[in-house]
Amino acid sequence: MDYTTTNYIFQSAISFVLENRIIAGVLWIAFMFFILRKIAKRDNDFILKKFSKFNK
Q: Which domain holds residue 35?
């Protein structure tokens, strides 16, 4: 099989990151902020449900 398209996409993504490190860093921080915020909300909801069962 020939993976030239996939190889080209990854090479262009890596070259973009290496050329624009500041932009890539800001995008990474924003991405992690939203992902961690979503995970923390789900975890908080789970903990609140768990403790509300014991309090009743």
A: 21-56
